[in-house]
Amino acid sequence: EKTIELVGTDDLRRWKSHRTLDHFSRPPVFVDLPLLKRRRRIGAFLSIGRKHIGGFIGNKDFDDWEDQETVLEGRSSSFDATHLEPIAVTSIPSGILLLYSAKNNENQLSIGAAIFDPNDLTLTRWRASAPLWKAPHDWYAEPVSFLGASFQGKYGTLFLQRSGHSAESFPLPKLWEMYRLPKQLLVTKNTKK
Predict the structure, then answer these.
(1) Which residues of the chain carry a pLDDT beneath 50?
(2) What is the pLDDT of residue 61?
């Protein structure tokens, strides 16, 4: 059985273990949510099956998690039909931006994005209709591990590693478009399974 451990660092050389996250069976990505009654809240996203990403809300101690169930579901005839996995999450003016990897029905790997309401993770404010990034066709048979993403203002970089290769980085040129979205976006309620 896998154990998920929460660790932190100030200098990327010395890491400190804070606690194990017994509530999760797969590695989540975390984001600070707006304060609720002056209490810090943490949002977590993780893969819950091949076609779903689930949301959770916990407290500042990364404890006491409330299941939001499915917050994102694969779209059968789209670039993100299956294999949805969260990569990174950050706050932007229009909400909580989640980057995720996915595959289409032909097994092509790509990166998608969705923006959620920071006060209710079950509300999707926006979702990409096309991928932000697609893996080259000659990568079809190669296993790829996403290492995360970094955000510098309106720009982002994706980090990944292919089997037998060193870590690689790719710019996400379409990321800046999400900052041009209006702060009040059309909201759709996710159906809970």
Answers:
(1) 192-193
(2) 86
* Token pair 């002056």: residue: 38
Q: Which two tokens stand for residue 166?
A: 């060193």
What distance in Å separates the CA atoms of residue 163 and residue 143, rounded to the nearest whole number? Answer: 6
pLDDT for 172 equals 85
AA identity, residue 175: L
DSSP structure class, residue 184: S
Question: Are 174 and 156 a contacting pair, CB within 8 Å?
Answer: no
Query: What residues contact residue 174 under an 8 Å CB cut-off, 6+ apart?
Result: 132, 133
Q: 18: how many CB neighbours lie within 10 A of its CB?
A: 12
At 190 the pLDDT is 63
Name the token pair of 42.
Answer: 């943490």
Distance between CA atoms of 105 and 77, rounded to whole angstroms? 7
Nearest to 99 by CA among 164, 170, 39: 170
Which pair of structure tokens corresponds to residue 62?
């990364």
Structure letter (DSSP) for residue 26: S
Using alpha carbons only, how large is the chain's radius of gyration in Å? 16
pTM of the full structure: 0.86
According to the model, what pLDDT value does residue 179 have?
Answer: 62
